[in-house]
Write a structure and sequence with these properties.
This protein is an alpha+beta fold and 302 residues long. It has helices at residues 11-21, 37-47, 59-69, 86-90, 97-109, 134-143, 146-152, 154-168, 230-242, and strands at residues 52-57, 75-80, 113-121, 124-126, 129-133, 176-179, 186-189, 191-195, 201-203, 206-208, 220-225, 252-258, 260-273, 276-296. Strands 1, 2, 3, 4, 5, 6, 7, 8, 11, 12, 13 and 14 form a 12-stranded mixed β-sheet that branches.
């Protein structure tokens, strides 16, 4: 599945990718042109018994392909084509599709395929994270300027974060509460990141390392900021940039190895999933799904 509108996808790169994957394989290139398109194509491919479906685009395209093949024998392949490519880089891939395709092709050739766990929220899978509250409001602001995303990349996210902080997000009252089995209820959440993998994202080449407990073979991790004070936010994220993850405190709640989690409030709050803004809701129900999808592991020594 190719998203031709993604930041790093060009006609030349697509030709190079196709040529590399066609060595010893029968390859069909399908271009997506709207939200949900890749999921429907991936579901159809799985029904036809296709061995591997590859998401070549941004993290949103990858999410749709993973959703389409989850629970089937069809494996998921990953190629970075967006601006950040969190999941591909989490797997150790370079942020360049021409370099990354050699690693993916080697994984396909050696049948380096293994099941991995995914998160699921309100019936939809996510590969690396779901953001709730402020994080999602920032993504909404970015998507309002989607035509600029290809060219501006990270500066657009920084602008959106500052604008959302200044004028578009209530920093005075909590936005939701969190409940999970055998854990204390968190009643004063301002924004939460639910991780299936780590890091949360990348700032240029630097990973934003929130929790090393977020791996593909463990449960979910929920990190909740209980205040929007600048010192608390920067203190938590500063630790993430230094590596080793954030630390629990009076202003930051950290829960690991979660199989279930509910986030709810009387008033709607925003959320995003793998970088795609999905609107507002009053309730989110999370589960961790072990062995949800079969992943082609890139061969990093290829």
């Amino acid at each position: 599945m190719v998203n031709a509108f993604a930041s790093s996808v060009t006609a030349r790169n697509t030709v190079v990718v196709h040529r590399a994957l066609s060595q010893g394989n029968e390859v069909e290139v399908v271009e997506t042109n709207r939200r949900g398109h890749a999921t429907r194509f991936a579901q159809d491919a799985a029904r036809r018994g296709v061995d591997v479906v590859i998401g070549y685009g941004g993290d949103g395209t990858l999410n749709e392909v993973a959703t389409g093949v989850a629970g089937t024998d069809t494996a998921l392949g990953v190629l970075p084509g967006g601006s950040t490519n969190v999941f591909a880089r989490t797997l150790g891939m370079p942020n360049d599709p021409v370099a990354a395709v050699q690693l993916l092709a080697a994984g396909i050739a050696t049948r380096a395929i293994e099941p991995i766990g995914l998160g699921k929220v309100n019936g939809r899978y996510f590969c690396f994270h779901t953001g709730v509250g402020y994080d999602a409001a920032v993504v909404k602001e970015v998507e309002r300027r989607a035509s600029m995303k290809r060219w501006l990349g990270h500066p657009l996210f920084i602008y959106a974060a500052l604008r959302t902080w200044a004028v578009q997000y209530d920093r005075k009252a909590p936005h939701f509460a969190l409940t999970s089995p055998d854990r204390p209820r968190v009643h004063d959440g301002y924004f939460t990141i639910v991780l299936n993998t780590n890091p949360y994202t990348y700032l240029g080449n630097r990973p934003l390392d929130l929790s090393p407990a977020a791996t593909l073979d463990r449960g979910l991790v929920a990190i909740t900021f209980r205040t929007m004070r600048v010192t608390a936010i920067l203190g938590g994220l500063g630790g993430a940039l230094r590596g080793g993850g954030v630390k629990a405190s009076t202003t930051l709640d950290l829960q690991t190895d979660l199989s279930e989690l509910t986030i709810e409030h009387d008033a709607p709050f925003p959320y995003q999933l793998d970088g795609d803004y999905l609107g507002e809701t009053k309730r989110l129900e999370f589960t961790h799904v072990p062995d949800a999808v079969r992943l082609v592991r890139p061969q990093l020594d290829a």
